[in-house]
């Protein structure tokens, strides 16, 4: 391993360490420093574990979130699209942890495959997102995502993310 490669690996492994609390978790305030989301569209409350190839993150659902008012009326169920969004946000954070100067990039959903919803998510509960990195290069990442309630698998998906230059992407699509 070259000196540069060794230094690059060290940067990747340590770039979010300063954002972890004493328990090694990343709390919501620091999550917002990594991914460009905030309430009401932030679907990760805590990152409980993060390595170069795996993330475990949680979202606490009270049942008072706005989307439950209309999905399903009088019988709240977490929308499947928002479950996949939570997986996607965790996957984005994992991919960013492997990108030097990640703030210069946007990480975008590119393709979803093999999406399965096994059981409904009924509040109040905590959803745990477990995401494993399959492959990543400078153009994108492929990840396997799973969502759990307690120890029960409730959803899974193969996620493909695109990694693009932030300035180029935003200037190309900004409203003129």
The count of helical stretches stands at 4
Helix amount: 10-25%
Which percent range describes the beta-strand content? 35-45%
Tally the beta strands: 7
Biggest sheet, spatial arrangement of strands: 1-2-3-5-6-7-4
Largest beta-sheet characterization: 7 strands, antiparallel
- The termini sit apart by 47 Å
> Could you say what the CATH topology is called?
Thiol Ester Dehydrase, Chain A
Question: What does the overall shape look like?
Answer: globular
Structural class: alpha+beta
Query: Spans with pLDDT under 50 lasting ≥5 residues?
Result: 1-12
Number of domains: 1
The CATH architecture: Roll
H/E series: HEHEEHEEEEH
Give the class-level CATH name.
Alpha Beta
Q: Mind telling me the CATH superfamily name?
A: Hotdog Thioesterase
Q: Give the mean pLDDT.
A: 91
Radius of gyration: 17 Å
Task: Report a brief summary of the structure.
This protein has 176 residues and is α+β, with helices and mostly antiparallel strands. The chain has helices at 3-14, 28-31, 80-97, 166-173; strands spanning 26-27, 46-50, 54-61, 105-117, 125-136, 140-149, 152-165.
Structure, explained:
It is a single chain. With 176 residues, the chain is α+β, with helices and mostly antiparallel strands. It is built from 4 helices and 7 strands, in the order αβαββαββββα. A hairpin with a 3-residue loop joins β5 and β6. The N terminus is likely disordered.
Task: Give me the secondary-structure topology.
Layout (H helix, E strand, L loop, with lengths): L2 H12 L11 E2 H4 L14 E5 L3 E8 L18 H18 L7 E13 L7 E12 L3 E10 L2 E14 H8 L3
Antiparallel strand pairs: 1-2, 2-3, 3-5, 4-7, 5-6, 6-7
């Amino acid at each position: 391993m070259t000196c540069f490669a060794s230094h690059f690996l060290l940067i990747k492994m340590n770039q979010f360490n300063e954002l972890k609390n004493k328990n090694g978790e990343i709390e919501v305030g620091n999550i917002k420093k990594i991914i460009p989301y905030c309430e009401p569209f932030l679907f990760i409350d805590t990152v409980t574990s993060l390595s170069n190839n795996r993330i475990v993150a949680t979202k606490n659902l009270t049942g008072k979130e706005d989307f439950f008012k209309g999905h399903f009326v009088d019988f709240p169920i977490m929308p499947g699209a928002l479950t996949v969004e939570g997986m996607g946000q965790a996957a984005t954070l994992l991919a960013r942890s492997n990108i030097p100067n990640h703030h210069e990039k946007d990480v975008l959903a590119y393709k979803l495959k093999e999406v399965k919803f096994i059981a409904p998510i009924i509040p109040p509960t905590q959803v745990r997102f477990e995401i494993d990195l399959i492959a990543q290069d400078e153009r994108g990442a492929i990840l396997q995502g799973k969502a759990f309630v307690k120890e029960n698998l409730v959803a899974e998906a193969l996620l493909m993310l695109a990694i693009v230059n932030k300035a180029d992407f935003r200037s190309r699509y900004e409203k003129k």
